[in-house]
């Protein structure tokens, strides 16, 4: 059996929390949504189905949980766009729905509608104003490893730092990278995301061969509640004394799971441990 990557383990741990309890009394499958629309960009939506936590899986089995034949629509005012589904190896689901006609604008509201297997799910979100990371410092630890620290600006909304490596189009949350509102600047350590790594290979440091893109996302109160609990569950899932036990909230209707959220975003690039763009 192939080892299952950590992002799949985390997905099962988080979306399977409810499923585990229902499985013992009659498991019922649900739609899982991870959808976003950022200021200046189109929507991106990944869809999958949850699965019982107390079963064994191979990686090929998990691919069958990805939803590839849904109709996904984003609306704003009198505008409407049906998103296009396509394969994308950078994303954990390897398949996403994307839009280009409706581009996110600060202060505007966007409604997501998913139609699949005779059912319909909806959620609405609003995009907050973006913010930018301040000074970024690269500190060598060894010849091949380095740490990254950055200055968080004062924000009137919560925020999180995400990271992509090697030019990947997928940004994963950095470890301990979710922050509440603050009226002052803060110096923070940017830890490597767990993303698509195996547990026994995870480290917080970056390698000098890595080209690292850092995204600062501002978000509303619900998105903060969701990602802060997600972060706590990821950390606790690695601790046998304090395991992850909390179900994530959702703003998706019709008993789905997951999140549809608007974000303000800005990106900075750290190139091979010695340059910041």
List the helices and strands and how they pair.
Layout: H1 6-24, E1 31-38, E2 43-49, H2 59-63, E3 71-76, E4 79-82, E5 84-87, E6 95-98, E7 109-116, E8 119-126, E9 136-140, E10 145-152, E11 159-165, E12 172-179, E13 186-190, E14 206-207, E15 211-218, H3 221-237, E16 257-271, E17 275-276
Parallel strand pairs: 1-16
Antiparallel strand pairs: 1-2, 2-6, 3-4, 3-7, 5-6, 7-8, 9-10, 10-13, 10-14, 11-12, 11-15, 15-16, 16-17
Describe this entry's structure for a reader:
- It is a single chain.
- The protein is mostly beta strands and 277 residues long.
- It folds into 2 domains: 6-128 and 219-263, Immunoglobulins (Immunoglobulin-like), CATH 2.60.40.10; 136-218 and 267-276.
- The chain has 3 helices and 17 strands.
- It has helices spanning 6-24, 59-63, 221-237, and strands at 31-38, 43-49, 71-76, 79-82, 84-87, 95-98, 109-116, 119-126, 136-140, 145-152, 159-165, 172-179, 186-190, 206-207, 211-218, 257-271, 275-276.
- Strands 1, 2, 5, 6, 11, 12, 15, 16 and 17 form a 9-stranded mixed β-sheet that branches. A 4-stranded antiparallel β-sheet has the order 4-3-7-8, with no helix packed on it. Strands 9, 10, 13 and 14 form a 4-stranded antiparallel β-sheet that branches.
- β16 (257-271) and β17 form a beta hairpin.
- The chain is globular.
- Residues 1-24 have low confidence and may be disordered.
């Amino acid at each position: 059996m192939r080892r299952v990557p950590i992002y799949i383990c985390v997905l099962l741990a988080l979306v399977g929390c409810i499923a585990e309890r229902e499985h013992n009394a009659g498991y019922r499958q649900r739609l899982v949504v991870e959808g976003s629309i950022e200021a200046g960009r189109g929507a991106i939506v990944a869809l999958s189905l949850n699965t019982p936590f107390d079963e064994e899986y191979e990686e090929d089995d998990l691919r069958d949980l990805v939803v590839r034949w849904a109709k996904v629509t984003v609306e704003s005012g009198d505008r409407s766009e049906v998103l296009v589904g396509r394969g994308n190896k950078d994303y954990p689901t390897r398949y996403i729905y994307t839009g280009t006609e409706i581009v996110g604008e600060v202060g505007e509201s966007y409604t997501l509608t998913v139609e699949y297997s005779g059912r319909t799910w909806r959620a609405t979100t609003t995009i907050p104003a973006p913010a930018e990371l301040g000074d970024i410092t690269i500190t060598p630890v060894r010849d091949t490893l380095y740490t990254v620290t950055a200055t968080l600006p004062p924000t009137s909304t919560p925020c999180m730092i995400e990271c992509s490596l090697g030019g990947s189009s997928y940004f994963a949350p950095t470890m301990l990278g979710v922050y509440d509102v603050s009226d002052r600047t803060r110096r923070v350590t940017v830890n490597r995301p767990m993303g698509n790594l195996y547990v026994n290979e995870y480290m917080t440091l970056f390698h000098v061969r890595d080209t690292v893109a850092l995204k600062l996302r501002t978000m509303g109160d619900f998105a903060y509640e969701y990602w802060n609990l997600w972060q706590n569950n990821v950390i606790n899932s690695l601790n046998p004394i304090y395991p992850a036990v909390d179900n994530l909230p959702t703003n998706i209707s019709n008993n789905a799971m997951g999140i549809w959220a608007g974000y303000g975003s800005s990106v900075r690039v750290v190139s091979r441990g010695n340059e910041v763009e």
